[in-house]
Amino acid sequence: MAEGSGSASVAEIEMAFQKFAVHGDTKATGKEMNGKNFVKLCKDCKVIDGKNITSTDVDIVFSKVKAKTARVITFEQFTQAMVELAPKRFKGKGQEEALQQLYGLIAGKEPANVGVTKVTKAAAVDRLTDSTKYTGSHKERFDESGKGKGKVGREDIPDTSGYVSAYKGQGSYDSKVKEQE
């Protein structure tokens, strides 16, 4: 027997099934798995290897084991699907051995990227957020510590008074209105 083919417990398989079943679906109970997550499980656990098993094979098996009108499979149907896929994935192995090896791939796994949102900082972002790199009039926008001064650091604060630029009687509207009363 190949290394890593120690028989995986049903509990470990069922755990993996449940984790993938609820992946990306807040309403899922973990009792049933949809086709998308079934394919994800097969991809993440390397059941799909691109040679012996492709995502098309997985789709076909999924359709085969699910109930006619259903769009999900139960854990029992999932195990049936694995029985179908095992000999394809591990060609030349006996049914039982192939199945054990397939389960070995799945046991204890969970969806890749589950709840992992890595903050990627591109070099461009570093460059743009480094106040020491600003030159000329732009460097006036930061104090010594590199913290932005906000509006104070800008000279070209737009005039939002509503008057046309260079209008001499700016601010005299109220007094004119009062005169006419």
From TrEMBL:
Transmembrane helix keyword on record: no
An example Gene Ontology CC term for this record: cytoplasm
Keyword field contains Cytoplasm: yes
Coiled coil location: none
Predominant subcellular localization, coarse grouping: cytoplasm
InterPro entries registered for this protein in UniProt: EF-hand-dom_pair (IPR011992), TPP/p25 (IPR008907)
One GO term (biological process): positive regulation of protein polymerization
Keywords for this protein: Cytoplasm
Subcellular location: Cytoplasm
One Pfam entry name: p25-alpha
Molecular-function GO term, any one: tubulin binding
Entry similarity comment: Belongs to the TPPP family.
Protein name stated in the entry: Tubulin polymerization-promoting protein family member 3
Source species: Pygocentrus nattereri
Lineage of the organism: Eukaryota, Metazoa, Chordata, Craniata, Vertebrata
